[in-house]
Amino acid sequence: MNYTQYRKDVYNTALKLVEVGLIRLSSGNISMRLPDGNVAITPSSIPYDEMDYKEIVILDIDGNIVDGDHKPSVEKMLHINAYKAREDIKAVIHSHSIYSMALSLVKLEIPLINSELVPLGAPIPVVSYILPGTDLLAEKVAEPFRNRPLLKAVLLENHGTVVVGKNLKDAFQNAYNLETGAEVYHKALQTGKKIRVLSQSEFEEVYNRYYKAKQ
Ligand SMILES: [Zn+2]
User: Fold this and answer.
1) CATH code at 151?
2) d(C-alpha 6, C-alpha 192), whole Å
3) Protein residues placing their CB within 5 Å of the ion ligand 1
4) pLDDT tens-digit profile of 49-76?
5) Over the stretch 20-34, which tens digit does the pLDDT of each residue have?
6) What is the span of the domain harbouring residue 101?
7) E strands in 42-170
8) Is the whole-model pTM more than 0.90?
């Protein structure tokens, strides 16, 4: 299988994430599930502005290198476990975006406060702190995705986010919407006033009207 286009797709998504400020230097990593069942993932420790699309690594579904000259992201098992958790997950973005990370420090899950968070299946839970890059973190991150079929994002305590999607474009939009929701929630918290959260019936109403057909 020729992986060139898939490598370019992952690389271009990384650049877009840098462009909108969700990824800085070499923090964060991106992957997609390929038609042959393998996974294309960003390499470890190469700043995105120095990266070449040819450095994207191809893994099998157990995390072994199939093709590529570089070490895959240290969080490769976090991506792999997300793919194993749900068939509909075809792309994964792990970022250290600022507002999401800030809320993770105080272990605040993001409630369903606006329409940006509807397609993410909010409330967005916080996975308790575990050393980055470990198999245990990868296992714990997969649990909420496995248990909640509509969930598209989690916060990692004192660390960052994991966002999934049905393709790279969808995962990018979900990552952007998550950070928007986190920023809005953060700003609302500053007022010290009570924050109104959408009810379950309001969620179902807006989900069924605008998002259900797109899932
Ligand atoms: Zn990280």
Assistant:
1) 3.40.225.10
2) 46
3) 132, 160
4) 889 999 999 999 999 999 999 999 999 9
5) 999 988 789 999 999
6) 4-214
7) 57-59, 65-67, 91-95, 126-127, 153-156, 160-165
8) yes
Distances (CA, A) of 117 to 1, 112, 175, 208: 37, 6, 10, 14
Distance CA 160, CA 80 (A): 18
Contact present, 10 and 31 (Cβ < 8 Å):
yes
Cα 210 to middle of ligand 1, angstroms: 32
Q: How far is the CA of 75 from the centre of ligand 1 (A)?
A: 7
pLDDT at 77: 97
Q: Which of 26, 184, 182, 37 is nearest to 94 (CA)?
A: 26
pLDDT at residue 215 tops 70: no
Residues comprising the chain, all counted: 215
Count of domains for the chain? 1
- 29 C-alpha to ligand 1 centroid (Å): 8
Q: What is the pLDDT of residues 117-136, one digit of tens each?
A: 999 998 999 999 999 999 99
Secondary structure letter of residue 42 according to DSSP: P
pLDDT digits (tens, 9 = 90+) for 173-192: 999 999 999 999 999 999 99
Ligand 1 centroid to Cα of residue 4, in Å, is 26
